[in-house]
Amino acid sequence: MTTTYAYAATDAQAKLAPFEFQRRALREHDVQMEVLFCGVCHSDLHTARNEWKNTIYPVVPGHEIVGRVTAVGAGVTQFKTGQLVGVGCMVDSCRTCPSCAEGLEQYCENGFVGTYNGNDRETGDLTYGGYSTQLVVDEAFTLRVPENLDPAGVAPLLCAGITTYSPLREWGAGPGKKVGIVGLGGLGHMGVKLARAMGAHVVLFTTSPSKIEDAKRLGAHEVVISKNADEMAAHANSFDFILNTVAAQHDLNPFLNLLRRDGTMTLVGAPEHDHPSPQVFNLIFKRRRLAGSLIGGIAETQEMLDFCGEHGITSDIEMIKMQDINEAYERMLKSDVKYRFVIDIDSMRQ
After folding, report:
1. 41, 143, 148, 167: least CB-packed within 10 angstroms?
2. Residue range 202-229, pLDDT digits in tens
3. Where are the domains of the chain?
4. What is the 8-class DSSP label of residue 277?
5. DSSP assignment string, 187-198
6. What's residue 312's pLDDT?
7. Which residue, among 284, 325, 345, has the nearest Cα to 40 in the 3D structure?
8. CA-CA distance, 55 to 35, in Å (whole number)?
9. For residue 350, what pLDDT is reported?
10. Is the peptide bond before 128 cis (omega within 30 degrees of 0)?
């Protein structure tokens, strides 16, 4: 058992505050790591404040984790002490259902085990996430981090990176394809970088003219102000794929109009309230598709990390101390970050 220092919320109204607990003793296939960096995801805030009505307290958020291996169980074959590793949104799944058998653990038919606010499959104990100094995870849910990348900038790849990479891959973003990214936040900025690296023609949609320059810096070939009807009309029936990262409730129809025949728009933003239902004729007359996507399986997440290693891609981050997390949450609500907060976990060890 390892004494672990963390920050936790004890109820929906409580600010995150120091919390101490014991990580489990190593099982045969476990990897123990010293957490170095943890990204701050909007899901962390939703969970800490019980906005999805499923939080078990106390909750230690954090599922964008980079650390260094400090010990391994007797049966571990893939990792060794000193190695740089990552952990994303899942720490286990049933491993036997059809989805797990296909390497799609995120769609586990018996429910994957969340890195936090989940229940250990063996003991039923509550899982605690990466806002903590130590982590113990099964090697099957541990990822290799490319050594050539800035480890702090890698942390958000474990959620924001894979959330955008998986649908871009699934729907064939690449050379000769016109790909739209809706929104330039924590998810959207990764979508732009990844789609550009895959070779697609990338168009960023934003409501904010102030984001045009940054979108182009990140890799967008074009930027469209989505409130401008003329700019939108100029792109009618032309997109192969649109990745919609916006979580705020909004009308999907203007974007569906931009898809060519057989085009797909995939939603990855998780709105508090559902979007208004799109017009069915918009879909019928061009055989368009409206889809959804959730993170990625372990193999695909490793593929994404390797891809980012090859292309030198990391998230644009602002580093914070653990003690500043409550202020960071308030700033995140105002979209006052470019584009992802990352906690320097060493700030808890000083």
Report:
1. 148
2. 999 999 999 999 999 999 999 999 999 9
3. 2-159+315-348, 161-292
4. P
5. HHHHHHHHHHHT
6. 98
7. 325
8. 23
9. 75
10. no
In tens, the pLDDT along 128-147 reads 999 999 999 999 999 999 99
Polymer length in residues for the chain: 350
Q: Which tokens hold the place of 254?
A: 């203007």
Residue that the structure tokens 């499959």 belong to: 121
The letter for the amino acid at 94 is C
What's the CA gap between 141 and 331, in Å, rounded? Answer: 31
For 318, phi then psi, to 5°, come to -120, 120
What number of other Cβ atoms are within 10 A of residue 286's Cβ?
Answer: 16
Rounded to the nearest 5 degrees, what angle is found at the Cα of 262, between the Cα atoms of 257 and 268? 70
Degrees (nearest 5) of the Cα angle 260, 264, 268?
140
Predicted pLDDT at 271: 82
Does 328 have pLDDT greater than 90? yes
Closest CA to 41 of 22, 63, 58: 63
Portion of the chain with pLDDT greater than 70, in percent = 100
Predicted confidence at residue 1, as pLDDT, reads 80
The 10 Å Cβ neighbour count of residue 159 is: 30
* Residue closest to 41 by CA, chosen among 186, 154, 142, 183: 186
CATH superfamily entry for domain 161-292: NAD(P)-binding Rossmann-like Domain (3.40.50.720)
Confidence class of residue 306 from pLDDT cuts 50, 70 and 90? very high
Report the C-alpha dihedral over residues 277, 280, 285, 288, rounded to 10 degrees. Answer: 50
Q: In 3-state terms, what secondary structure has residue 1? A: coil
Other CB atoms within 10 Å distance of the CB of residue 50: 17
Task: Supply the mean pLDDT for the chain.
Answer: 97
Pair 155, 39: CB distance under 8 Å: yes
CATH superfamily of 2-159+315-348: Medium-chain alcohol dehydrogenases, catalytic domain (3.90.180.10)
Sign of the alpha-carbon dihedral angle for 326, 116, 69, 162? negative
State the residue for tokens 């979508």: 191
Closest CA to 224 of 246, 243, 208: 208
